[in-house]
Amino acid sequence: MDNLLSIQHLSKSFTLHNLNQHISAVEDISLHLREGEFVGITGKSGSGKSTVLRCIYRTYLPQSGNIWYNSKQFGLIDLAAASERTVIDLRKFEIGYVSQFLNVMPRTTARELVREAIVEMGHDADFAEAETVKMLEHFELDRSLWNSYPATFSGGEKLRLNIARAMVKHPRLLLLDEPTASLDHGSKLKVKQLIEQLMKEGTTMLGIFHDLEFMDHLCNREYQIRDGKFYTAQKQKNLTTS
């Protein structure tokens, strides 16, 4: 099985100019994801987990290291050095990202957010509308909210919408940054069902979770991060954590 993603010696730091401090977020990180795998990252808050995902998605530009991604569109490409135009294309067609927070254009309804994600993949309006309805119903988002602006939603409703918008595109690589952080048990099960469906379709996933019970029986392998460095726990599928 070929690697879809291979991170080699990745480091990222930040300069706090107002405090005249330089902070190392992650240091000399290496990991790989084979096609179709679901790999989990665990660690305390502030340990650098989200920084790794944001470097892959290119929200952050790393200081050093390589992020090799085997793109369907571009072939093997280093995300750490790719152009902004290439990164935008990859986000549109291949790489999805689910964060704890929903950042959207104002005056865009929940229905429009999900529908536009499908349309930009090249699908027609009828297909996009049908898939939008299916996804919003799956996450049990109240129909009265579909044509409302997400700014009025609760934290859990925003998170469910964020997940729906990313998963409806069926990306080749899906990055999950605490996707169940503010969800109730029933909503977590809805997320788990879609993750399992995407895994059957061949989507490769890298996910951050504090809820280790949620990861059980999902992850192929686990990486633990402490003080910005990785420690591998080579656990096969049916991962259990003590």
UniProtKB/TrEMBL annotation:
It is a peripheral membrane protein. GO terms for cellular component: plasma membrane. Coiled coil: none annotated. GO terms for molecular function: ATP binding; ATP hydrolysis activity. Signal peptide: none annotated. The keyword Repeat does not apply. Belongs to the ABC transporter superfamily. This is ATP-binding cassette domain-containing protein. It comes from Paenibacillus piri.
